[in-house]
Design goal:
Layout: H1 3-20, E1 32-37, E2 40-44, E3 59-63, H2 64-74, H3 81-94, E4 95-97, H4 105-109, E5 114-118, H5 121-127, H6 132-139, H7 141-145, E6 149-152, H8 159-168, E7 178-183, E8 187-192, H9 195-213, H10 218-232, E9 239-242, H11 246-254, H12 266-272, E10 277-279, H13 283-294, E11 300-303, E12 306-311, H14 314-332, H15 342-351
Parallel strand pairs: 6-7, 10-11
Antiparallel strand pairs: 1-2, 1-5, 2-3, 3-4, 5-8, 7-8, 9-12, 11-12
Bound molecules: zinc ion.
């Protein structure tokens, strides 16, 4: 891969990770992200979640001009099944690298350099309401008047939605440095001239939507703050999951956290780490102390009465949650435990030096 492309994909992965870890903004494998460079566009592939996109996985490279030209041809046409099928062929023809590009690739094609499509809970709490158009017009009057925000009536994802956006913009790229399309019964597409603008604008308007509903999703936003603190401590690009598991939270009320620290089986060691981290609120200091002692990052973090899981991506963090819950079950039995010995731990830790790249701790790479 040429260096320029590599930098773009690294930025795309960074962007996807930022949004991919936030439950308030996107759930499961929904949403997509893209970056344009001249006439090329790098976009998340279909079938991947934002969290999985990396330099070696989950993105497609397309010729953007082919897509824009196609949209200008269909802008006045009725979108039939035949046209939908044709749009898939056009998408395929535009592909120069990677798997099938996301179904929303056409919608991204005329937008700004950096684009993200999300399903924020707060926005969708509004967009599914019968009078959503009126409400959006009221909440975002200033942004709509200045062509920063557009309301898009429900359209099937794909060419029908892309055509609607294309026509709202009169076939021209958006003028503002940042803009957002609010999609009825669906979500949002935000686009901006820089990554920082894309992030700050998306956060700002989402907060505005939350405020109008009087809902507070601070508990999900906190995962971004923890991820930033981990970055400052030297562990960059980590994803953080806030646990809402009832069993876990119930157990934690009963347990003394320092007494359930030792790994009791190999999976607990690999997924949850050698030690859990307990922070009284001074996260920076707790992270420094943990790093000094264990030379790695904590996989399980307790901050006051809340519990978070840390991993390279949000899917892996969910696996940690799974294993941690089983760890708590093991400790819930009152009899004295037999933790793994120091030698056992040493042996397991040396077992697979590339474990982070593999799915499971005993997976191994066969002879190539
Ligand atoms: Zn969507």
């Amino acid at each position: 891969m040429v260096k320029k492309d590599k930098n773009i994909v690294l930025n795309l992965a960074k962007l996807s990770k930022y949004f991919g870890q936030r439950y308030d903004l996107i759930q499961a494998a929904g949403g997509n992200s893209s970056i344009k460079l001249n006439k090329k566009m790098f976009i998340k592939s279909s079938g991947y979640s934002l969290a999985e996109l990396s330099i070696s996985n989950g993105y497609s490279k397309v010729n953007n001009q082919i897509l824009v030209d196609y949209l200008s041809k269909v802008k006045n046409k009725k979108i039939t099944r035949y046209e939908e099928d044709r749009s898939f062929k056009i998408l395929k023809n535009s592909l120069s690298d990677g798997g099938n590009p996301s179904i929303e690739t056409l919608a991204h094609s005329i937008l700004k350099k950096y684009t993200i499509h999300l399903h924020p809970i707060a926005f969708n709490m509004i967009t599914v309401q019968k009078n959503s158009n009126l409400k959006i017009n009221k909440i975002f009057k200033r942004e709509i008047d200045s062509n920063q925000i557009y309301y898009i009536e429900y359209k099937t994802p794909g060419v029908a939605l892309a055509k609607e956006i294309f026509n709202k913009l009169n076939g021209k790229p958006p003028k503002n440095n940042e803009c957002c399309f609010i999609l009825e019964n669906h979500g949002i597409i935000t686009s901006a001239s820089s990554i920082n603008k894309l992030i700050s604008f998306t956060e700002l308007i989402t907060q505005k939507a939350e405020k109008s509903l009087n809902v507070n999703f601070e508990r999900y936003k906190k995962t971004t703050k923890i991820s930033n603190e981990l970055g400052i401590a030297g562990f960059k690009n980590m994803s953080v999951l806030y646990s809402e598991d009832l069993i876990i939270n119930d157990f934690l009320k009963k347990f003394n956290f320092t007494k359930i620290n030792e790994p009791l089986n190999p999976d607990s060691l690999l997924y949850c780490g050698l030690s859990l981290m307990n922070s009284n609120g001074n996260l920076k200091r707790s992270l420094e102390e943990y790093k000094y002692k264990y030379r790695t990052y904590p996989r399980v973090i307790k901050i006051k009465d809340k519990i978070y899981f840390v991993a390279e991506n949000i899917l892996k963090a969910k696996e940690i949650e799974d294993v941690f819950k089983s760890h708590l079950y093991l400790y819930s039995e009152v009899s004295q435990k037999r933790p793994l010995s120091k030698d056992d731990i040493k042996r397991l830790e040396s077992y697979n030096p590339q474990k982070n790249r593999l799915r499971f701790w005993f997976d191994y790479e066969g002879k190539k």
